[in-house]
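CO-FOLDING WORKSHEET

Operator: S.A.
Ligand of interest: S-adenosylmethionine
Run index: 427
Mode: holo prediction, single chain
Checklist:
[x] sequence pasted
[x] SMILES validated
[ ] output reviewed
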Amino acid sequence: MDDRENLTTGSDSVRAAVRAFYDLHPYPPPVEALDGYRQRWQDDSRRRADFHLHWPDRSYRADLKVLVAGCGTSQAVKHALRQPGCQVVGIDISATSIRHTEKLKHQYHLTNLEVYQLPVERVSELSRRFDKIVCTGVLHHLPDPQAGLRALREVLAPDGVMHLMVYAPYGRAGVYMLQEYCRRLGIGHSEEEIINLANTLLALPPSHPLARLLGESPDFQRKDALADALLNPQDRAYTVPQLFDLFEGCGLAFGRWVRQAPYLPQCGSLAGTPHAARLAKLPLREQYAAVELFRGTILRHNLIVYPDDLINNRKLPRFDHDDWLAHVPIRVPETISLKNRLPPGAAAVLINQAHGDADLFLPVNASEMRLVEAIDGVSTIDEIIYHVSRAGVGNLHQLRSQARSLFERLYWYDQTVFDASPKGGAG
Ligand SMILES: C[S@@+](CC[C@H](N)C(=O)[O-])C[C@H]1O[C@@H](n2cnc3c(N)ncnc32)[C@H](O)[C@@H]1O
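OUTPUT RECEIVED:
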């Protein structure tokens, strides 16, 4: 056998072990119904926010071709339910995951969903191209993540986007310690072994790096989640620089973090430190790498990437040019405003509930709050300013300069996405 054959056989046996694991322990845990999920996505503003998170510079479309790669038990169904106008394809290596997906597909009479038992690495066999590829929680389980990502890149449409999620190492340090512990003891993933492991973890010292995760994340309380985290046959994690190497090696370019505030030095407590100015001078990817190290708690990276050949044609929202007045801000669904226990001068504190870090809140003063409250998902920033000024709050000139800084902060803090498409701004 030559070295290449060895490599292929090695990859095949890892893939087989991963498939066998997910056949026994499908993840996420199968669900009986998705009525609440479907209901939430009836909201048109939620759909538009999701679209413009991925394509800030394109006009809204509801007829996308979507691939959910490594769809697990319900993710492809969710995509088909939330966007009835989209054609969704789900693939997964595990027969059990496919069976659960098929069951939900029939339950909800989904004619816009196709499901195939197929490894990501062989996705080209579908002979299709996709506008959007969702691959979350999968690449880090592949024997060769780069080969899997390259295969996905080949079926991405030229104007397409990918939503990727891979594990991050520092926040999961405790997970990797216990994975190693289980390997040393030869712990398997039978029902009995998992129960024994769960009971053993009750004796974990409270200061162990895994203890925080066990205590804080409801996910880790479940046996199937525990098995997925600690007994998975293949699992690797990526630091920010390793992640950039991974996708750039596959012809992809960074678009944005799905939630960007946790990676930005101008957000949260780092912004007030003596290092803030120094961090700001670094190239953006160096800033992200530094903040990942500083926070130390990032568990997974959720990001949006584009084909690298057309990246220069993409227009991200910007605030250093008059373009910003024509952007249409759309509130992100997980955001709330609090009006009690406020810092001095604040009329409210804006929070994105999906942020896990307590320092990621955005105080706004009374006139800024009027601008926030005037966001309706269809008016441009210019129209919002005009509307607020007509209500007698400050003059137009003052409001404009205040608004530029406010809307940029709303963007950083994941409070709004922007429709920055040429038509979006026409109002
Ligand atoms: C942690 S689950 C994530 C499921 C789903 N993406 C989600 O976020 O809910 C990982 C899934 O990847 C699938 N998987 C692992 N290796 C795969 C491969 N080579 N090709 C396709 N699917 C794979 C597993 O069967 C499992 O369903």
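REVIEW:
The longest helix spans residues 3-24.
The chain has 16 helices and twelve strands.
[x] output reviewed
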